[in-house]
C-alpha cells in the first residue's frame, strides 16, 4: 500500500506475510477440498520453478479493489511499528499464469 509510505523493509515484510497467508490457504484447501488437487499442483510447479515473487506498488484504493478478487489474500497490519492498526498493507495471489493481465498498470517497488 504505497499510500502508507512504508519503508522498503516494512513493505517487503508485509509482502512476505501475504505470500505466507496465500501458501497456507492453498495447502489447507488441498486437504479440505473433495475436488481437484490443482491448486497443490500449481503450487508445486511454482515451488520448483524458483518461487518468483514480484512486489508492485499500489494505492489504498487499488489494494482494496484487488483484495475483493476471489483468489486474493490480504494482510491487515497490527499497528506495532510504522502504520496504523488495521491498515491494509499487502495483497497476494496464488501462483498463476493469469496474473500478468491483472497487474497491468502497476509499477515495481524499487
Q: N-to-C SSE series?
A: HHEHEEHE
- Radius of gyration, rounded? 14 Å
Mean pLDDT: 84
Biggest sheet layout: 2 strands, antiparallel
Q: How many H/I helical runs? A: 4
**How widely separated are the two ends?**
14 Å
The poorly predicted ranges are none
In short:
This protein has 110 residues and is α+β, with helices and mostly antiparallel strands. 44% of the residues lie in helices and 14% in strands. The model has no long low-confidence stretch (mean pLDDT 84).
Overview of the structural elements:
With 110 residues, the chain is α+β, with helices and mostly antiparallel strands. Helix content is 44%, strand content 14%. It contains four helices and four strands. It has helices at 8-32, 38-48, 60-67, 99-102; strands spanning 56-57, 72-76, 88-93, 107-108. The protein has a two-stranded antiparallel sheet. Strands 2-3 form a two-stranded antiparallel sheet. The longest helix has 25 residues, at 8-32. The chain starts with 7 loop residues before the first helix and ends with a strand. The model has no long low-confidence stretch (mean pLDDT 84).
Amino acid at each position: 500500500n504505497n499510500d502508507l509510505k512504508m519503508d522498503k523493509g516494512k513493505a517487503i515484510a508485509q509482502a512476505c506475510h501475504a505470500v505466507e497467508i496465500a501458501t497456507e490457504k492453498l495447502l489447507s484447501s488441498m486437504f479440505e477440498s473433495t475436488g481437484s488437487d490443482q491448486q497443490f499442483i500449481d503450487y508445486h510447479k511454482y515451488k520448483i520453478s524458483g518461487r518468483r515473487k514480484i512486489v508492485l506498488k499500489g494505492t489504498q484504493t487499488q489494494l482494496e479493489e484487488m483484495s475483493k478478487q476471489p483468489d486474493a489474500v490480504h494482510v491487515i497490519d497490527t499497528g506495532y511499528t510504522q502504520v496504523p492498526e488495521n491498515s491494509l498493507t499487502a495483497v497476494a495471489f496464488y501462483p498463476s499464469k493469469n496474473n500478468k493481465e491483472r497487474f497491468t498498470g502497476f509499477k515495481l517497488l524499487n
